[in-house]
Design brief:
This protein has an eight-stranded mixed β-sheet, with helices on both faces. The chain has one domain. The protein has ten helices and eight strands. The protein is an alpha/beta fold.
Length: 321
């Protein structure tokens, strides 16, 4: 099954975050070359449509000359090609199964872009309630979806149900993902069935991934990052409390993924171990190695690992576009 007809797009320039205090220095770029007049109006229209998607995290907002220069004719043509491919997939009723995006925030951006492209075909949307860490209902067919990551809704565990019957599932940087097999089981079962389990409970059953047709796999953040975010020291916790929890910070307490119940050190997953995990949970579909989409960070997998899982089809995101 071909996941989506991706088009080759030039590397995106570093964004200038919406919050000035967190802004990086914007790189020097060549003079902005606007698209030709026929393409320019369509490009501006597409930019406007992207801005209407309520799922783009507050810190991913882009502006400035680098962003303007990126909207050249070649990139605009590639974007339109990808948009048409997504529309064709929907028209052919090709998205009737589950697609799982699994990794860190770079992978999350791919999932959000996919959801935004399909937002007219989404009839139900669930994301992370930042108070509990569990899935909450944040949108449906008659309501505007909003999940900017700076209030009660976060894109750490998220699920979008399409009118065609398929679902887009996202799991990234949630505390369960750093709590071993039991934690990953709990996160994926929660996405698939909306159950709430304690990841530390040995009696929690393994998740069944036989309904998932494709997994877009990214990198994991380091365990040290997880310890700092989910288990801050008293000094760090006091500092964060005084400043207010930073907008979009991952949920580290509450019902789902509470790391205080887990005595074991938090850990990151290696790509090979994730593939073995998927196999043992009944997954037999397509694995798209996405990494972080910034060479040389695209994921690699030894041929021996591929050969050990003949019921999986492996490809890289760069080869799909």
């Amino acid at each position: 099954m071909r996941l989506i007809g991706w088009a080759k797009i030039q590397d995106f320039p570093r964004c200038v975050p919406a919050i000035e205090a967190h802004a990086h220095a914007e790189p020097m770029v060549a003079k902005f070359v606007a698209p030709s007049k026929p393409a320019l109006s369509k490009a501006l229209e597409l930019r406007g449509q992207m801005a209407l998607c309520g799922l783009i995290r507050w810190s991913y907002g882009c502006s400035g000359t680098s962003y303007d220069a990126w909207w050249n004719e070649d990139n605009f043509a590639s974007l339109m090609h990808s948009k048409q491919a997504v529309s064709a997939a929907i028209a052919s009723n090709g998205l009737r199964t589950d697609i799982l995006f699994l990794g860190n925030s770079h992978l999350s951006q791919l999932a959000v872009a996919t959801m935004c492209a399909l937002r007219q075909d989404i009839e139900g949307f669930w994301a992370t309630d930042m108070t509990s860490g569990c899935l909450g209902d944040f949108g449906h067919a008659t309501a505007r979806m909003e999940c900017f990551g700076n209030a009660t809704c976060g894109m750490y565990l998220a699920r979008a149900k399409l009118k065609s019957g398929g679902r887009i599932l996202l799991a990234n940087n949630h505390p369960w993902l750093f709590q071993g097999k039991a934690g990953l089981d709990a996160a994926l079962r929660h996405l698939l069935h909306s159950t709430i389990d304690d990841a530390a409970e040995a009696s929690v059953p393994m998740v069944d991934l036989s309904s998932v047709r494709a997994v877009v796999l990214g990198r994991w953040n380091e365990a040290s990052w997880a310890e700092l975010i989910f288990r801050p020291s008293k000094e760090e916790h006091l500092k964060r409390s005084k400043l207010g929890k930073p907008p979009g910070s991952a949920p580290g307490d509450g019902v789902c993924g509470n790391t205080q119940r887990c005595a074991e050190p938090l850990q990151a997953w290696e790509t090979t171990d994730v593939v073995h995990f998927l196999h043992h949970r009944g997954f037999t579909g397509n694995v798209v190695l996405a990494g972080m989409q910034i060479p040389p960070f695209e994921l690699k997998l030894d041929q021996s690992v591929r050969d050990a899982h003949p019921n999986m089809h492996f490809s890289s995101l760069s080869k799909l576009r």
